[in-house]
């Protein structure tokens, strides 16, 4: 699975492959053809073979939450975007074990994927749970929750569709709230400046670690505003 070279704004990630198991390597070779989203513009209905609500998760890590959601809700379709190969391999293993037919993945840069491989207004929910906080101030420009990136998310969401975000970094939570509150495409589902109840997601190892460290988990829920005809 060779990564495509992307140019433009600062990347929101660094490829930290870490250790990849033999099982994950095998999954990438043998299972990816079954679960990969097409590398060109494609409507979700064509890819999944049906019309169903589409939930996109950006940066799904090891795929614990995404696999659980797809198994719990067979009436919905799920699309996971993750650049790290071990995580993609782990999700593919889980998908095969559960025989999931409502799940597809891509390891391409999420922002390029949203711009170039999905039609407008095709998703019902976009989830971004615990994205890289890029804690050093000089790296904040790499954070995915920034205005231009959220415009790409907004393009893919249907009117009334939800953007669900979570972080355990207080500074990032404040930035997320400021960026999304100021964005013309979004409205806070819970009122101006209000954080949301915890989203319906699996308690992953990453979130458990944040809890052990005593971090506050901040959830945000914004909806796509109706388009205004010109």
Describe this structure in words.
The chain is of the alpha/beta class. It is 34% helix and 18% strand. It is built from nine helices and seven strands; from the N terminus they run H-H-H-E-H-E-H-E-H-E-H-E-H-E-H-E. Strands 3-2-1-4-5-7-6 form a seven-stranded mixed sheet, with helices on both faces. Strand 1 (54-58), helix 4 (64-72) and strand 2 form a beta-alpha-beta unit. Helix 1 (22-30) packs across helix 5. It is globular and about 45 Å long. Residues 1-8 have low confidence and may be disordered.
Number of H/I helices:
9
Secondary structure: number of strands = 7
Topology pattern, helix = H, strand = E: HHHEHEHEHEHEHEHE
Going by helix content, strand content and strand pairing, the class is alpha/beta
- Approximately what portion of the residues adopt beta-strand conformation? 15-25%
- Bin the helical content: 25-40%
Tags for this entry?
alpha/beta, seven-stranded mixed beta sheet, 18% strand, globular, disordered N terminus
List the helices and strands and how they pair.
Blueprint: H1 22-30, H2 32-35, H3 44-48, E1 54-58, H4 64-72, E2 77-81, H5 85-97, E3 103-106, H6 110-116, E4 123-129, H7 147-156, E5 157-167, H8 170-182, E6 186-188, H9 205-212, E7 218-224
Parallel strand pairs: 1-2, 1-4, 2-3, 4-5
Antiparallel strand pairs: 5-7, 6-7
Helix pairs in contact: 1-5
